[in-house]
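Appendix B, record 7
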Amino acid sequence: MSLALDNSSGSGFESKNEFIYAKVEMNIKLVPGNSAGTVTSFYVRQHMYHGNSWDEVDMEFLGNTSGDPYVLHTNIFTKGMGNREQQFYLWFDPTTDFHTYSITWNPAHIVLVVDKKPIREYRNVDPNNNVPYPRDQPMKLYGSLWNADDWATRGGSVKTDWSKAPFTASFNNYTADGCVYANGASSCPDKTAPWYSSELIDGDDLKQMQWVQKNYMIYNYCDDSNRFHGSLPAECGRKN
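Structure tokens (predicted):
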């Protein structure tokens, strides 16, 4: 499947099912060449919500000028509150071939993975919900290609070059293993499945995540005390 963007419209898709918990995975090949101003998104979000109380987990690929690397922008929204950004460069060219990206969320943690390497973990560190966690609002998978040249590339200073349109990103091999939500209830076919039963990243997976974060992370909200006026979000002191 290919998504296209021109100066009149973008494009996107959504999964048929919605899930309370799941592992969703897809192969993506990003827009090649001068992709400045464009955003290719792979994310899960509450499908139906009222007001500003939705849950969402984002993997957004921020385009750039030819020769400059993509930025993978991640964020987690709980009850409508985000501001949990972590950003990464990738250790490969994501435009020449398909690479595999996945989002897993279960009762214990959220894990973002690139080519089988975990890059980010957000743990459910507070069962009393003083640190909000997506646990009771079903979410669908979405993919999209859209214009965000007001912020996506160098803070919006580099605009989309529409002479390069249409921009195209490709998606394939979608898989989902999860607790499907329907008719007001969810069904989890196998709570012993590794994606559901895992409680934290450890062992080799932890080493891989630490390697990615040491070498390729370029922004972590938990390190940005100035942004939060010296008082970091509660989860930042609890190994998130």
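Remarks on this record: The first helix runs from residue 194 to 197. The longest strand covers residues 167-182.
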